[in-house]
Amino acid sequence: MSIAEVADTEVRQIEAEAAPTRFARGWHCLGLERDFRDGKPHRINAFGQKLVVFSGEDGTINVLDGYCRHMGADLSEGTIKGNELACPFHDWRWGGDGRCKQIPYARRVPLRARTAAWHTLVQDGMLFLWNDPEGNPPPADVTIPKIDSYGKDDWTDWIWYTTVIEGANCREIVDNVVDMAHFFYVHYSFPTHFSNIFEGHTATQFMKGEGREDIRPKGKPGTRQSLGSSSVAAYHGPSFMIDDLVYHYSDGDVPSVLINCHYPIDSNSFVLQYGVIVQKQPGLDDEAAEAMARRQGDFIRLGFEQDVAIWKTKARIDNPLLCEEDGPVYQLRRWYEQFYVDVADVTPEMTERFEFEIDTSRPNEAWRREVEENIARRDAEAAAAAATAGSSSQPV
Amino acid sequence: MSVRPDNRLADGPMTPLTCSACGACVEARKSSWEQSTVQWHADSVERCLERRASTPRPGPNGAAFAGCQTLKQEIREAAVLGRLPIQIDEDLPTNPLNEEAHA
After folding, report:
1. Do A355 and B3 touch (CB under 8 A)?
2. Do B1 and A319 touch (CB under 8 A)?
3. Which of A16, A258, A346, A390 maximizes the CB count within 10 A of its CB?
4. Least confident of A28-32, A100-104, A112-116, A177-181
5. CB contact under 8 A, A325 and B45
6. Strand A189-199 to strand A42-46: parallel, antiparallel, or no bridges (unpaired)?
7. Distance separating alpha carbons of residues A321 and A310, to the nearest angstrom
8. Each residue of A90-106: pLDDT tens digit?
9. Residue B96: its pLDDT value, please?
């Protein structure tokens, strides 16, 4: 047999190594800061461990290992006393720096009474935690950019969603950055422009899109028309994406900011969180603006739910078979790899600038035909149903 | 985990290309007239004049340099002149409206 014949008869095998046992180095968002400021300790299952988050009288939000170094009790079952977290078992008092400050029944605190404390960052209403398997503090140049719109009077506060994804490693979600075609099939939009840039610890996706009319029909003539959206979405590190997203309407633009972030629970489950803030439109009161943000969030949730359905049942594939119209999946994974190796082992290929750009007119020709067929079929079905109904009852 | 090579590069690898404006050496690849990828390196990023002159765009993701327009033109030119192979063998698409006008 010739080589060509072998290639033609051989079945392509899916190859996959086990999910990584280590967790990504980088800032991870744990959720909204306001949810941790209720005077109670909070248990967080993350990075294969149990953590406890608490905020004392000084307002600082601290993250410690979840288990008391005295007799191993769960500190998230304890209580906050002043600036310290008191263990539910023997009332040992732990400070946000990880040191035991006081044992009410003892004359002095024993040596090495210190537990693991995590570096945290509170920014734009969110709480971040720095994970580093090597134990180093966050470098000054590894940051999360500020979201200037957050906190402005004419913007809503976060509408926030949290969901636990079982049966998938968090790396699956990151592939979406380059997956142009899935936006049509899973998220119901036509990408009219699509490009990616990976550089340093940032992976950016530029996308312009229009809605699918077979999913969201256009409004009647004379009413407000949706003209599509422009999006610049970037992962800053392994798990936190900011999407600078503008919806275009016939009567003007609606700017919004979408967050898409996650943290691993273990190698086979993760917490997916997303949130949205929207600029309040003139003539809308706060309640209406918030309802609008929630509608947008709910629509995004639909998209994620469809992603999740795929993730839960899909196989890990280290050797995806890509066609020329697909995005730079391998190059993205090479970028993502930098967060799973020691800093000393980060290679230039992982961080050097890479660009991908595609004019989407060609795929859109096929997709527009599909949408038109869907609409025509639905119209025919509706007409048939109306004809049947019409024969048995009088039109009103 | 180790990242595998891109199956598409087996048929058509990246092609080195030097920008005539600044001398930056990059690797480029076009799968079709509509698609291109560019691999930069630390020295080419430093050389790029447009990048040096660029300022951040507004918004939280504005720090990322959007790309060099000169290089983009050069890649297109190299493709038209046949110096940069196109993986999908098709003629350079022309404006159908123009064709109608000529007919």
Report:
1. no
2. no
3. A258
4. A177-181
5. no
6. unpaired
7. 17
8. 999 999 999 999 999 99
9. 62
**CB B67 to CB A340 under 8 A?**
no
Yes or no, beta carbons of B60 and A197 under 8 Å apart: no
Q: What confidence score (pLDDT) does residue A135 get? A: 95
Instruction: Express as a percent the part of chain A with pLDDT over 70.
Output: 93
In the structure encoding, which two tokens stand for residue A113, read together? 């009474």
Q: For an interface test with B, which of A205, A353, A357 has the most B Cβ atoms less than 10 Å from its Cβ?
A: A353
Mean pLDDT score, A334-357: 97
Contacting residues for A206 by C-beta, under 8 A, at least 6 apart = A193, A194, A195, A196, A197, A231, A232, B66
Say yes or no: B94 contacts chain A, CB-CB below 8 A: no
Q: Rounded mean pLDDT of B42-58?
A: 95
- Joined together, the tokens standing for residue A23 give 């967790």
Interchain CB contacts (distance < 8 Å): A and B: 107
According to the model, what pLDDT value does residue A37 have? 96
Report CB contact under 8 Å: B37, A233: no
Per mean pLDDT, which of A33-47, A205-219, A267-281, A357-371 is the most reliable? A33-47
- The reply to whether residue A333 touches residue B3, judged by beta carbons under 8 angstroms, is yes
Asked if residue A29 has pLDDT above 70, the reply is yes
- The beta-carbon neighbor of B6 closest among A15, A232, A330 is A330
- What pLDDT was estimated at residue A5? 57
- B10 to chain A, any CB pair closer than 8 A? The answer is no
Of A20, A206, A360, the CB nearest to B1: A20
- Banded model confidence at residue A42, pLDDT cuts 50, 70, 90: very high
**What average pLDDT score do residues B51-59 get?**
94
